From TrEMBL:
Residues 255-509 form the Reverse transcriptase Ty1/copia-type domain. It comes from Phytophthora fragariae. CDD domains: RNase_HI_RT_Ty1. This is Uncharacterized protein. It comes from the Eukaryota. Residues 140-202, 598-624 are annotated as: Disordered. Residues 191-201 have a biased composition (Low complexity). Coiled coil: none annotated. InterPro entries: DNA/RNA_pol_sf, RVT_2, SH3_retrovirus. Residues 172-187 have a biased composition (Acidic residues).
């Protein structure tokens, strides 16, 4: 097979090692009649069907992106030929005839993906350049063999110098690998080698004589979680998943979730599926293997299987306020988890829901005889309680949780319905609900312990001081406060979109994206892949970036805001920007968001403030609306930030700043209202920092200005708030303006300064 591949490609015999390696790669992933069900060797070993999408013809001509570095006028692409796949890093091994090197890169375009005209041009170029390149290789070999006639001691010295001079990162195909055991004058064969990754290089390559790598063999790989029951049973961790399934069935049956009945006639049955997840600690180590049975809610019909849907999701700003108060009260927040929360609520009244028998559920012969059926295919499950996957399951669970909390004396906040508080002579207890995960703190540890005791009716588990919540890692110190990070989320995202080996960048967005309003549209024809992105691939990446930006990374908020603007026509330039943001996150993966303030700034009388910045978009031909940015702080700790495009075109910088100040003040008043509702006294006036003197005068002035008559009257509430001494607006120098990071493209030095001001640390 390798011989045929080599001769068909037209490559010299020197590439026999690459041909053998690639042939082994293909055979290990191909169906084998010697294995059960003609499974491939990789599938037998790992239990997972291999993905064959990345396999291309050996020797396929392609174009390769080459980073020109400081050589601005050098071409950005080179003609190459694919000679293998790399298992150490994602990418293809590509031979570049012009430079006579083999590189490993993801940035290629295969001949099959080019149009007919480009295909003809590329084939012609290879045919035109090929013979000359092969001759140049042969001439270099002849010259090298002449040099090899020197004494052995001298040859070893020369070889040692070569190793020192050879740059780490290139497969030099023009020079053969030296052999200490071969006799002088004998022809040497090129040993098969594999390129390995350099930490920060875009394309990682290696000197071919540096390391001898044997022909590829089947090896163990890190597999993702199974996608369904069948994959789980064929997975290498099948025993772990079987135990997880057993635990889930025991929990559901002990909760009296369903009743096994004979399948009713003329009734619609819903399918179920298994969702498997490897739960990890904050440091990435395995905590447990979890299996969850869910209903295929997409099969439900409105009015027949469900009526109202809702899921309780705590606002992220509210969540940070809980940690602020925990730091003020010196009582660390605890994480509470309700196991199998959705199945504890009763099903919706007036609805009968039937399920097919789930995979892995065993039915005894005694039960079959009792129900008068011959096999379990004639049975169904009639739901008695709610179950994961049902469209109304979130609402039913929240209704149960609300009922129990109210019975315990808690009040629901009107500002954020997912926050509950209990205030009495003994102090205050706060509970934030994010579906079935709870954040709990109070004015004393005794109140927190008492809450978990009272919630025993729901089997609420106290997981201790918060260490991981919603994928966010937490570190707590009584003196240093809270540190939040999303390292595991970022690494998972980079791996999912093929950016694990991408080079890092110092800024998330550059000026090149400002005027890029036209360009090639992304295809909208399926899931796609990192090598061939589609609209769905782009949306998935942006969704991950949005979550990271909202939780712990205000430094990418503006870049993410920019990449999400064209929701109706995603372009290739947007995909490149999204990847650049991800590469920036790779370089700053250890960055943490700090929630800490000096003890002197914290008291029962909480202070609240905000900083405002805006930016005019003067150069964009399609839209000149400004961007409002603001940072919200409570007790000296950042609890939220906004980056929002204004709804109207500002006619002056004063107007743009005035609108931004109004938007940030509205967010600030929401925080003040929530704190007041739970009984926390807030110092008045609230503080607002603006870096525009004209806007400050307009806010504080009592006269009517002709320059502000046209501003929407709903935004002028800020003037009334300032007039009644409820808001203190002060000037802030632009170099100290924290909100600058949320409104504009910044150079790396300035970005580093602002990262410190918004409480980002490493």
């Amino acid at each position: 097979m390798a011989r045929c591949m080599l001769f068909a490609s037209g490559l010299p015999l020197k590439f026999w090692g690459y041909a053998v390696e690639y042939a082994a790669y293909v055979l290990n992933r191909s169906a084998c009649s010697a294995n059960p069900r003609r499974m491939s060797p990789i599938e037998v070993l790992t239990g997972k069907c291999p993905d064959m999408a990345g396999i291309v013809t050996f020797g396929s001509p392609c174009t390769v992106y080459r980073d020109p570095g400081k050589r601005a006028w050098q071409p950005r692409a080179e003609v190459g030929m694919i000679v293998g796949k790399n298992d150490e890093t994602k990418g293809f091994k590509v031979y570049i005839p012009k430079d006579m090197v083999v590189v490993t890169t993801q940035h290629i375009e295969n001949v099959e993906t080019l149009d007919s005209k480009q295909n003809v041009q590329l084939q012609a170029q290879l045919k035109r350049e090929g013979p000359e390149l092969w001759r140049s290789i042969d001439e270099r070999e002849e010259a090298k063999q002449q040099k090899e006639k020197t004494p052995k001691k001298i040859k070893k010295q020369v070889k040692g110098k070569k190793k020192k001079k050879k740059a780490h990162g290139t497969d030099d195909v023009g020079e053969d690998a030296e052999s200490d055991q071969g006799s002088e004058g004998d022809g040497e064969q090129l040993a098969p080698t594999a390129a390995s990754a350099a930490p920060a290089a875009r394309m990682q390559t290696r000197h071919m004589g540096a390391k001898h790598v044997p022909v590829q063999v089947v090896h163990a790989v890190v597999t993702p979680d199974p996608r369904n029951y069948r994959d789980a049973m064929r997975d290498a961790r099948a025993n772990k998943w079987k135990e997880a399934i057993k635990v889930e069935f025991e929990a559901l049956e002990s909760n009296n979730t369903w009743k096994v009945v004979a399948r009713p006639r003329n009734s619609k049955l819903l399918h179920t599926k298994w969702v498997f997840k490897t739960k990890t600690h904050a440091d990435g180590t395995v905590e447990r293997y979890k299996g969850r049975l869910v209903v295929c809610g997409n099969e439900q019909e409105y009015g027949i299987d469900y009526i109202v849907t809702f899921s309780a999701v705590l606002d992220l700003t509210t969540g940070k306020l809980i940690f602020v108060m925990a730091h003020v009260w010196e009582v660390p927040a605890h994480h509470g988890d309700v196991p199998s929360a959705y199945v504890k609520a009763d099903k919706e009244e007036g609805l009968e829901i039937y399920l097919y028998i789930p995979d892995g559920m065993e039915i005894s012969d005694k039960l079959l005889a009792l129900l008068g059926v011959k096999h379990k295919g004639q049975l169904a499950l009639r739901l008695i309680k709610s179950l994961y996957g049902l469209k109304q399951a979130g609402r039913l669970w929240n209704r149960l949780l609300h009922k129990i909390l109210v019975k315990l004396g808690f009040c629901q906040c009107y500002t954020d319905g997912c926050l509950y508080y209990k205030r009495d002579a003994g102090g205050v207890t706060l509970v934030g609900a994010y579906v079935d995960d709870l954040l709990v703190t109070g004015t004393s540890n005794a109140r927190v312990d008492a809450f978990f005791e009272d919630m025993a009716v729901l089997e609420l588990k106290d997981l201790g001081v918060v260490s991981k919540f919603l994928g966010i890692g937490f570190e707590y110190d009584k003196d240093k406060g809270w540190l939040l990070e999303q390292r595991q989320v970022i690494l998972w995202m980079l791996d999912k979109f093929g950016l694990s080996e991408a080079s890092a960048v110092r800024v998330p967005i550059g000026g090149e994206h400002e005027n890029d309003v036209d360009g090639e549209l992304l295809p909208n024809d399926g899931a796609g892949s990192p090598q061939r992105p589609t609209v769905q691939t782009f949306q998935s990446l942006v969704g991950s970036l949005l979550w990271i930006a909202r939780c712990t990374r205000p430094d990418i908020a503006y870049a993410v805001h920019r990449v999400t603007r064209r929701t109706h026509e995603h372009r290739v330039s947007d995909w490149r920007l999204a990847k650049k943001i991800a590469r920036y996150l790779k370089g700053t993966v250890d960055t943490k968001f700090a929630m800490h303030a000096p003890r002197g700034s914290m008291s029962e009388d909480t202070n609240c403030g905000g900083r405002v910045q805006r930016r005019r978009l003067r150069r964009r031909p399609r839209g000149r609306k400004s961007v409002s940015g603001g940072v919200l702080m409570v007790c000296g700790m950042v609890v939220g930030w906004i980056c929002k495009k204004q709804s109207s075109v500002a006619l002056s910088t004063m107007e743009a700043e005035f609108v931004a100040a109004s938007q940030v003040t509205a967010e600030m008043l929401g925080v003040v209202e929530l704190l007041s509702e739970i009984g926390i006294k807030v110092e008045v006036p609230y503080k607002l920092h603006v870096d525009n003197q004209a806007a400050i005068k307009q806010i504080e002035g009592e006269d009517t200005s002709g320059r502000a008559k046209h501003i929407n009257i709903r935004l002028k509430f800020i003037k009334d708030l300032s007039r009644n001494k409820g808001l203190n607006v002060s000037y802030c120098e632009s170099k100290l303006m924290r909100a600058d990071i949320l409104t504009k493209t910044l150079p790396a030095p300035r970005l580093e300064e602002l990262r410190v001001l918004v409480m980002l640390t490493t």
